[in-house]
Design a protein that fits this description.
The protein is built from six helices and no strands. The chain has helices at 3-12, 20-27, 33-58, 67-92, 100-134, 141-181. The radius of gyration is 24 Å and the shape is elongated. It starts with a helix and ends with a helix.
Amino acid sequence: MKIEELKHEWQNVVTPQLDIDRLRNMTLEKSHPVLSGIRKQLILELFGWSAFVIICFTGLDADQKPFLTSVILIIVLALAMLFNVYGYQLSKDLIAGPDINSSLQNRIASLRRFAFISVVLRLVLIAGVGYFLSSSLQLDLRRLMLLGVASVVLVVPLYLLIRLWSKRISRLSETLRLLEEH
């Protein structure tokens, strides 16, 4: 197809006419499908971790554990929740530069930082919750083996998280590479 034919095709494309109010509603945060999913996940995790803390302090005798253990639990959970809120804010601000290339470059850089911190915080969260749950246990061979199995099982979701972030970032990097070629 020659450039003139392409121009002719482009000019003959019928664009749908949308009401300005409908366009405005599509850009609102509350009606954005991706942000809505992230917000639901954030709320679900907040309620889940809050329920976990309530169970720990009412049913798992957290008041009988060392004070530092409870403080560590609260800090790692608060860090995880604050980081999730930061991720939500990062997802809202999609335009990160004056043009699409610089915006994608900035987005890739911020996603790399976010992914690294996400993985590190997930490790800290696992370690903090694990420390809290095992702080008053008398460790014998059977319990050490169970902790070892639990550690191996927890590595799988961590690996999947790393793989997920790698795929997302590589897709954006490939898109940026394709844009820069043209």
